[in-house]
Every structure is written in C-alpha cells, then in structure tokens.
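Run TRI36 ligase through structure prediction, thanks.
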Amino acid sequence: KVAIKGIERELICPACKELFTHPLILPCQHNVCHKCVKEILFAFEDSFADGGSESSNQSSPRIRISASSLDRIDRINRSGIKRNSLTPRSTLFPCPGCQRDIDLGERGINGLFRNFTLETIVERYRQAARAAIAIMCDFCKPPPQESTKSCMDCSASYCNECFKIHHPWGTVKAQHEYVGPTTNFRPKILLCPEHEMERVNMYCEICRRPVCHLCKLGGGHANHRVTTMSTAYKTLKEKLSKDIEYLISKESQVKAHITQLDLLLKETECNSERAKQEASQSFEKLYHVLEEKKSAALRAIETSKNIRLEKLQTQVEEYQGLLENNGLVGYAQEVLKETDPSCFVQTAKQLHVRIQKATESLKSFRPAAETTFEDFVVDTAKQEDILGDLSFHSNGLEIPEINEEQSRMYNKALISWECPGKTDSADIYVLEYHKLNKEEESVTWQKTEVCGKSKVLFDLDADSSYAFRVRGYKGSICSPWSREVIMCTPPAPVFSFLFDDKCGYNNEHLQLNPRRTSVESRAGFPLLLGSERLQVGCYTTLDYIIGDTGIAKGKHFWAFHVEAYSYLVKVGVVPSNKIQKLFHNTHDVTSPRYEQDSGHDSGSEDAFFDSSQPCTLVTLGMKKFFIPATPAAPKDPASRILPLPSCLGICLDCDRGRVGFYDAGCMKCLYECEVDCSGIMYPAFALMGGAAVHLEEAVTAKYREYHDDI
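Sure, done. The structure for TRI36 ligase is below.
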C-alpha cells in the first residue's frame, strides 16, 4: 500500500491550492476544481472585457489570475481575435497547471469529465487526515448520530436505525449499493457530457478521452481512431503498472538525485547570500559617492550663502550710515560745526569724496549679492535615467538586433528584432523609442514590454524621425541595449485604397489579384495582334488604372512596390475631370515623336508635354526612377536617372497643390512638383509591357503573426 499522506502534492488544485473538490479533467489532462474552473472563466472573460486590467480581477477571493495569464489576455486582445456569426463559439481557458490557453470547445465546462478516480483518492486522503472525525447521519433528528454506512444510490450517509427506516426489507431501496461512511458519491455509470444519458463505452486515442457510440457515429470523433473501453483500460493499466514498477526499481537513483538536489539547494542559498552581499556592496559604493557629492554641494551652498550675507550686511551698514545723525551723515554734520577754515578744509576734502560715493550709490542702487542660487541646481536627469536602467547584466544573454528590413513605417510602425544566437533567449523584451528633436536637450524614452520579437506602435507622429532600441530580460538579468536604429514616419497620414476594376480597366492587358491590391501588365497574344497596326518607330500605348477612392482635401500618403522586371510604369495622380481624357487619349504618348526628352533643346516638346498630359506622372522602369525634364531639373539626362527604390511613396497635398514622390524606405523626397487640385484627385498608374505594381499592405496588430505563419 502507498502511504496516503505522502501524495498531498498530487491532490492539490493548482488554482485554489486546496484539496480537489469535484475535479474536472481539462483537454491538456490537468485537473481543476469545478468551482475554480467557473471562477477562472468569469475572471478571464471580465479581463477580456476590461482589456486585461488587474482591477477587473477582484471578483473572487480564491482565484487570482497570474501575471503571465494577464500577459496572455493582453496579447490575445492585441492580436485582434474576433468571432463572427459563422465561426463556432469556443471557450478559451487559461490552465493554471501548464499556463497555456486551452480551447474547451462549444460546450465549455459542460463538455468536461469529472475525475471520479481522483475524487475517491482525495476522499481516502481526507479520511486518513481526519481519522477520528466521524461522518454524521444525514437523517437523524438533532443531535445527529454517527453514520455507519453510506448509500451510493441515495448519495447520503445513515446510522443503523435511519438506514433501516429508509431502506426497508423487501423494497427496491433494499437493493441499493452501500459502502462505509463517505462523503464521495460517484455515479455507477460514467455518462457522456455531450450526449446526456449515453454511457461511455469507447476511448478516443486521438483526443485521449472516453466517448460514447454517438460521438463515434456522428459527433466530433467520427473520423478518430477509437478502441473499446476494456481494451483501453487494460492497455493503460499495463503501461501505468510498468512505469510504476520502473520508477520503484530506480528508487536508489531517485534518492541519489534527491541528495544531489539537497546539496544544490544549500549551494543556492549560499550563492544567493553571496550575491546579496556583493549587490549591497555595490549600492553602498553608490550611496558613498552620493553622500560625498551631497556634502560637497551643501558645503558649497553654505559657503556661498555666508559670503553673500556678509556682502549684503556690509551694504546695509553703509546705507544705515547715510541716515541723519547716524554714521557718515552724522559725522559730516559734526564736521560742519568746525569754524577754523584750515582745520575744516583738511578734514572736509576726504569726507566730501565719501559723500559723493554715497550719493552715486543712491542714484544707481544695486544689491551687493544675488539672492538666487540657480547656479547651484543639481541636474540629475541623466543620472536618474542611468539608475533607472540599473540591473543585472549577463554576458550570456544575447544582445537583440533590430531588423531594419522586416521593420516598417507606414500607417503604423512595425518594429522587429532578432537575436544572433538561438541559445539563452530572453523571456521578455523592452522596446524603447523617442522622437528626434534638436531643440530638446534631454531625451525622454518611451518604454513598452513585449513578449515576442516584434511590436506594432500606434502613437507616432507623421513626418518625424524616431530612434529605437531594444533589450532582452531573463528574470532579473538583462542584456545590453541594442544598436539604436533611426526610422522616419510618412510625411502625411496614410491613404488607403484599392485598384478600380470598373473605371477604364482593360482586362485584356491588365490582370488584378482577387484582393485588388496588385496589378500586372502582360505582353501576351492580344498585344501581338495589336502590333500589326503599328508603324515603324512607334510603340504601344500605356494601359491605365486608377484607385477606387479619391481625395478632395488635406495631405495624404500612399506607398507601393514596382517589380524589378517591369519595363515601363508611370505613377502619379489624376483629377476627376480628366479621367475620361486619360482613358480615351488619342495621342500615342510613348512614340518617339512625342517623347519628352528626344534630344531637342527648343523647349517646345516640354510645353507640348505639359499641356497634353491629363495627369501628373513620373516614369519608372528597368530598375530606374526618371525625374521629369522640367526647367528646374538638371540638363544632363544622366543626372535625372536614379536607382529605383524597393518601395515608392506618393504624398499629395491638396491644400498646397503639390505632389511629391518618395523613397518610402527612408522617406526621402526624390521629386516634387505643382499639381492642379481643383477636382477630386485619384491615384493613377500606367503600365506597358511586362510590369507589376503592388500596393503597400497596411500594418495591423496581427501583421507580424500573419507573415510568420506564411
């Protein structure tokens, strides 16, 4: 027999830390009290409703959601998990045993089995613990007698007299099953929680739980591999017996490990005390430095105060001497009483000089010393920041590096980082950022904690530069800060639109993806047929496509990618009153006859180009960005050709009537010009030959998770 008192740890609920009461088996095979499951679910749902705030976690005195569970709630909230009418409702449950979010399915608690075996063991433990404490009869009149047996069918305990009264001989109740006194009443037959009144007679090997025949025929286990209950009982019992025998045979090895662990416990205690002493010594050194600095600062202030007081006091005495019958004035009045001219002149000359100085001081009064001590203000802002970052540094913890290729600045900021090595990774990361401002002398970093290796930021200002850095934490140990990375936000709020598949869309030459975020021009068979009508020296015309949303006012920005293989792409804006002209333009603008830069310097071509074009466009193609030939542009054609950025952006300012073309990677303006914004403005694109344009995808809370899954 196994000593009941040696297994207390296995009989404690991980939620309430008390003995199990009606334990339920979770899908992760951990057990939790039925009452605890309900309380955790209520607290969990309240935390979801309140965004994971700790204030919402006060409904139950027995249950407290851990910080890790709150972090998971916050992470699930940020990930934007939503359910609609077409999605089966499922219940998420934060298991206190394995710290994972368990899906309880549509039935929730009602789909869980009670662990009657565990209940029986807990009851035996309780009986062994209370020993002499008797179970009283449920039907005796006060005072109740000690029970002698319990009826499993009636779920009640009886003394001998009450049992005879309620189970008379010759009746159906006389056939009830009775056992010794107990408070654990378990049903004789285990019923299926999904199909009530159906007995479980099979075991699903996939889900590792008992099922009934209806679950196998048309329920959630229809395609699962099942076995009979007797076979599962025999197989699992044999496996468990063998495992127990193996563990018992390794008893000496287990005892050796326990001895080793005891030594490690003592060593840990000693090392922790040593670490405490070293940490205390380090802080004592800081205290000593601060005390010295404090004493020096106070001494300097005291010395300055005494000097200033002395000067002011002397000045007070001088001015008191100017009063009548007092000091200098009194002495002068006495000198005036002298009647001997020679004696008077001898004394009055020096006295007159002193009187003149006193008169001048009255005309321009100025205190002999300053009363403020602004020069003695101690600026501790930098030191406070340094002390705020004071923590245990470890050489073994990898320094994270911000991945600038995966990080993005668009409608929101996505900051991603990675560690060079895969070992000793951090448990949590701290991302700090601040706006670059030359006018501010001190830098204030904004801080956010992240469980993963990416973070989406929502509160950044447009047309600004930000510095980012990140560090990892593993317990109380942290890594050094990563290299600071500077990134720029778009010059204006991001404008969202899709390609218009109705207005002027040529589906013979252009192909849109189902989401209307990408357009591709294919030089296929229809283009070859159309080329029969073309003359020598004239190319095909452009195929235009516009955005499905227009801009009437304000400043807006959008970005897109042009495939490297693209032969010719034009991008820009078009007013609503010129859209028809755009799609029905009879001029062959790509003919060398009307090429904007054909080599002539007369300027007539530029005039014709500006007046004939219905929209403002710039030319891209063959991995190049072509700055239009304008009077302000360089005369040398080679200087107007730039490498094509991986991501291009357009900023339209309707209020100022200007449009700018940007390298969206670094938010650098490549070209800007005036544009007529009298009408509603639409994004415009033109493609010829093999080319493709992809609109930049907006950054959302699930952006990083979505692309990681892909």
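The chain has five domains: 1-45+89-131, 138-188, 231-362, 401-489, 510-528+539-586+613-695.
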